[in-house]
Automatic annotation (TrEMBL), chain A:
Source organism of the structure: Eleusine coracana subsp. coracana
Pfam families: F-box
UniProt protein name: F-box domain-containing protein
F-box domain boundaries: 10-56
Stretches assigned to coiled coil: none
Source taxon at top rank: Eukaryota
Top-level taxonomy: Eukaryota, Viridiplantae, Streptophyta, Embryophyta, Tracheophyta
SUPFAM superfamilies with a match to the protein in the record: F-box domain (SSF81383)
InterPro entries according to UniProt: F-box-like_dom_sf, F-box_dom
TrEMBL record, chain B:
Start and end residues of each SKP1 component dimerisation domain: 124-163
Protein name per the record: SKP1-like protein
Pfam families: Skp1, Skp1_POZ
Quaternary data: Part of a SCF (SKP1-cullin-F-box) protein ligase complex.
Keywords: Ubl conjugation pathway
Gene that this sequence comes from: ga14711
Signal peptide range in chain numbering: none
SMART domains with a match to the protein in the record: Skp1
Similarity comment: family membership: Belongs to the SKP1 family.
Protein origin, superkingdom: Eukaryota
Involved pathway(s): Protein modification; protein ubiquitination
Keyword Transmembrane: no
The protein's role, per its UniProt record: Involved in ubiquitination and subsequent proteasomal degradation of target proteins. Together with CUL1, RBX1 and a F-box protein, it forms a SCF E3 ubiquitin ligase complex. The functional specificity of this complex depends on the type of F-box protein. In the SCF complex, it serves as an adapter that links the F-box protein to CUL1.
PANTHER family in the cross-refs: SKP1
């Protein structure tokens, strides 16, 4: 075989055993590996069948880096670093994002199996979406939440979006500990969405004479309002345990439901509470799906504007005497924004606490 | 990698083995060198290849075997030291220079070496030739790679397929 005719030998490299091809290609950087997939079918088969290509290691093409600030009283517009030509000015870019720049998903509410995510109503069953008209501002109500023994009572601001229940203070004796009970409901609310800036989202549901309350991602408190007892129910197993998850408690046909939505992938998980055994209630999974693809693309970056990378000058600072945060345009093609930020704003103390930097890439 | 029981020290002379190429040429080499081949190592440990027997290698012609043995003889001392922990920088540099020179060869020879290293399982040589080919194709486009390695020009169907697959990881081709 090795003594093949000279004219034939060149083609022999095409016929190397898979092990040898694999050995050769695995010495290439991810980019070279990706290129080698296109050389011929046998190489492609080797790369694919042996999973040689680590696509996540490939150099990514970043079309824009988008900074969005979140916080209580942020007045700043979003920042955009673009790779467009020098003609791509900030206003044009921002106009394209417009008010639609939400770069993560936020589940505001749900009703009748529909979700209100960002400004869209989504049906998770049919994976359909419609845009919601502007909603009226929520009305704040004051509600006393149950405080653990020895704790100070906390006063919480509650936003009830629709049918506001009437609250009255009551006392609830539970296991010898007297708690100041939040509220009982003159008419059981279909659902209650409690939002609080300090504690995150809290939820409650009233169902079959019991009040269910949820604090953050912790236990569900089940309060028997007539007997004056309560117990704690663990959150469901298998819940997406990332921090970036909202949880909800609500009521529907099978009683109490527990839902979790992750911000980034918009993974929706739903359980209902099987209380056939009163003492050992069980969460039963009802739904688990990712809804991100149902949402429209957050950013309308146009690929035809792609070009050399530029750090767009942006005079972030209100103080004219200060140096600008971001240096003037830099046209280095591969330069992907390792810029440093300095916080100089007078209200720094609180308003940047929750600053979120979102970097997005688009292939 | 070394053959610990090759017994070279026992009677003062290194043990020799005979390898027979596909065209019936006999090569007598030190067992330690031949044992760089995983395939041969077992036979040699079993006492094969000595005397008039010889180990036949029907897949390797004499030109290639000669080249392979050149590599093995050069690398055997370092391999006997267990990866040459005691090797001086000079020794390592010398081996590196030898390796670079060694693979500076025609593609037909390179191909034969690749196959021989593969069949004989000579780890260092396998790495060396694979790296050589990888260096030849590094930074090239699919068409340039094909030309470099002397692949025949793609048929229109193959060309279309290549283009389609280039789009899959298009951002990597910049």
């Amino acid at each position: 075989m090795a003594a093949a005719d000279e004219n034939e030998t060149n083609k022999l490299l095409l016929r190397l055993p898979d092990d040898v091809v694999s050995d050769i290609l695995s010495r290439l950087a991810p980019r070279g590996m990706a290129v080698s997939r296109s050389v011929c079918k046998s190489w492609r088969d080797v790369v694919d069948s042996r999973r040689l290509l680590r696509a996540h290691l490939l150099p990514l093409s970043v079309a824009g880096i988008f900074f969005r600030h979140t916080g209580a009283d942020i007045l700043f517009p979003p920042l955009f670093f673009d790779g467009a030509s020098s003609t791509a000015i900030s206003d044009g870019i921002l106009a394209r994002f417009g008010n639609d720049y939400t770069s993560y998903t936020y589940l505001h509410d749900h009703c009748n199996g529909l979700l209100l995510i960002n400004k869209y109503v989504i049906n998770p069953a049919t994976l359909q979406r419609v845009t919601l008209p502007e909603r009226p501002p929520p009305v704040p109500y004051v509600l006393l939440l149950p405080a653990a023994a020895g704790e100070e009572e906390e006063e919480e601001v509650v936003h009830c979006q629709t049918h506001v229940p009437r609250f009255r203070s009551d006392r609830l004796a539970a296991g010898g500990i007297t708690r100041r009970m939040v509220a009982t409901f003159a008419t059981p609310p279909a659902r209650l969405l409690l939002e609080d800036s300090a504690m995150g989202t809290e939820n409650g549901a009233y169902c079959r004479g019991r009040l269910y309350l949820q604090y953050d991602n912790d236990y569900v408190t089940r309060i028997n309002t007539s007997a004056g007892t309560y117990d704690l129910i663990q959150p469901p197993d298998g819940i997406d345990a990332t921090k970036e998850t909202q949880v909800y408690l609500g009521k529907s046909e099978k009683g109490v439901y527990y839902a979790s939505v992750s911000y980034w992938l918009c993974r929706l998980q739903i359980w209902y509470l099987d209380e056939s055994n009163e003492q050992q209630p069980q969460w039963v999974s009802r739904y688990d799906n990712t809804l991100l693809h149902v949402l429209p693309c957050n950013c309308n970056y146009r690929s035809d504007d792609d070009g050399p990378w530029i750090l767009r000058y942006y005079d972030y600072d209100y103080d004219d005497d200060e140096e600008p945060w971001i240096s003037p345009p830099n046209t280095d093609h591969d330069y992907v924004c390792p810029c440093r930020f300095h916080h100089h704003h007078p209200s720094d103390d609180h308003c940047h606490k929750q600053q979120v930097v979102n970097a997005a890439h688009y292939g | 990698m070394a053959a610990p029981e090759s017994g070279d020290g026992n009677n003062g002379a290194a043990r020799m083995v005979t390898l027979i190429s596909s065209d019936n040429t006999r090569f007598e080499v030190e067992a330690a060198a031949a044992s760089l081949s995983q395939t041969l190592q077992l036979t040699i440990l079993d006492g094969g290849g000595g005397g008039g027997d010889g180990i036949p290698l029907p897949n390797v012609d004499s030109a290639t075997l000669s080249k392979v043995l050149e590599y093995c003889i050069k690398h055997a001392p370092a391999a006997a030291n267990g990866g040459a922990p005691n090797a001086t920088a000079v020794d390592r540099a010398e081996l590196e220079r030898f390796d670079n020179e060694f693979v500076n060869i025609d593609q037909s020879v390179l191909y034969s070496l690749i196959m021989a290293a593969h069949n004989l399982e000579i780890e260092g040589l396998q790495s060396l030739v694979a790296k050589k080919v990888a260096d030849m194709i590094k930074g090239k486009s699919p068409m340039e790679i094909r030309r470099t390695l002397g692949f025949p020009d793609p048929t229109p169907e193959e060309q279309a397929e290549m283009n389609a697959h280039m789009l899959e990881y298009g951002w990597a081709y910049e």
